[in-house]
Amino acid sequence: MQFTSTRRTLSLESAQVITKGISEDGGLFVPRTFPRLSDELISRMAAMDYQERAKTVLSLFLTDFTAAEIERCVKGAYTGTFENDDPAPLVEVAPGMNLLELWHGPTCAFKDMALQLLPYLLTTAAAKTAPGRTMVILVATSGDTGKAALDGFADVENTRIIVFYPQDGVSPMQKLQMTTQTGGNVAVSAIYGNFDDAQTGVKNIFADADMKKFLAEKNMEFSSANSINFGRLVPQIVYYVSAYCDLIRTGRIKAGETFNVTVPTGNFGNILAAVYAKYMGVPIAKLICASNRNNVLTDFIRTGTYDRNRPFHTTTSPSMDILISSNLERMLYHLSGNDEELVAGLMKQLKSDGRYTIPADMLTKLQQEFYGGFCDDRAASATIAELFRQRHYLCDTHTAVAVNVYEQYVRETGDRKPCVIASTASPYKFAKAVLSAVEPEAAADNEFAMVDELSEVTGTKIPAPLANLKDRAVLHKSCVKQAEMAGFIRDFLSR
Ligand SMILES: *Cc1c(COP(=O)(O)O)cnc(C)c1O
Asked: Which of 267, 384, 421 to mutate to test the pocket of ligand 1 (most atoms within 8 A of CB)?
């Protein structure tokens, strides 16, 4: 299996692609071809457990990894780290409506599915490309990614992880999740400023020549755990293949029968993984792309014009508050029939004008594959309340956006094919908005009391990683200015 860049023809193996993260031309790494899942393989996979399915899918993309390496990676990632043996259960909430619960991991959001596996993939890849080197993961976070990355990389050999978060820009719960993180190779610091200050600080450090030299002398190298790394995409393909296997195994569809997929979308990583599963032969009919009020993708799918020049809205589904969906570049590459020049041109326009329009034939293809829809906070809240009242199923705000848009789609098209809806976070992770949806008279006035009240009101269980949080020791208390970030990193890496 060979990989190329979306902006230039290359021929790289997966280990190179995973250690580099992003191509030097600014493009993203994509597979040059897609492996196909034969009917025979699918019927065998339907009888496998999640780890076996993961090994099967990974071995098709990571052909430069040995079977033993893949086995070690998958076992490490998914043994004892998720609530159940099946990290991604498929729950039929209503006839034809299947919620793929991706939030039973250590941080209660779907990013665990990839970030529990990435450290193993990255260290295995680095051992091939640069034996003995320590990978230093640098993260600026607005909340969820930081904790998921910390949890994934904690105590993983030959790695260090450093996370910066804006002092007043994360919820008390998110802050405590990060400041209580254990592990000999982790460092966490708040920074004075907002998320952009943290992000800019990290970008500057990545590009700093002195820092690079400092790292090289220690046989260290910076790497990134963000969602454009192919190593984060491949674990996500697995759960869509697995969902198809579960639909077959439980008799909800027959092998080969088509179904739809709905994904609450921000950076376009999760939904792209569903596209890749489709390219491998999973019979997905329509991909339903659900957005919140930051509906840049809805407009794009409906008109062919991507335009980020619009107000930014803060919503109750913050992980989807994004105006530049970085993984969309990969989709453009595939839709254009691998036209690197076209993609490079569109990305240049996005950078200079904040907008671009795709050619008519590409728009036709885009609309054949996708349906785009959005809903605001009030509609999402109503969906949470309704789903709980009618089906006694409690979902989080991001998942609610997906369910709402899925219902819009069914009303508009009458298409009642079975649907897999990605459920991306535990309702307890966004307790404030979820509680006010199901109990408008709620009394709790802080996040931790809200979690307790949500459990009392709904009779559902608080996930263990959140329940224990209050009693854990705060281990990381530092707060630095942007200019002090480099010093903080040097101190930590010199220890
Ligand atoms: C990150 C995230 C999303 C968006 O996923 P993308 O891959 O960025 O499209 C949706 N919901 C939750 C809870 C998330 O954390």
From this structure: 267
CA of 145 from ligand 1 middle (Å) equals: 9
Q: Which of 239, 276, 319, 423 to mutate to test the pocket of ligand 1 (most atoms within 8 A of CB)?
A: 319
The pairing of beta strand 305-307 with beta strand 159-166: unpaired
- Condensed to tens digits (0 to 9), the pLDDT of residues 83-130 reads 998 999 999 999 999 999 999 999 999 999 999 999 999 999 999 999
Q: Burial, 81: exposed, middle or buried (Cβ in 10 Å; 0-12, 13-18, 19+)?
A: middle
Question: Roughly what angle, to the nearest 10 degrees, separates helices 485-494 and 195-207?
Answer: 60
Alpha-carbon span 447 to 459, nearest angstrom: 18
Residue 90 to residue 58: CA distance in whole angstroms: 21
Q: Which of 291, 478, 281, 267 is nearest to 402 (CA)?
A: 291
294 Cβ below 6 A of ligand 1:
no
Query: Is residue 400 in contact with ligand 1, taking CB distance under 6 Å?
Result: no
Nearest C-alpha neighbor of 258 from the set 276, 234, 281, 238 = 281
Between CA 416 and CA 412 the distance in angstroms is 11
pLDDT tens, position by position, 378-389? 999 999 999 999
Residue 55 bears catalytic tag: no
- pTM, two decimal places: 0.95
Nearest residue (by CA) to ligand 1, atom 8, is 267
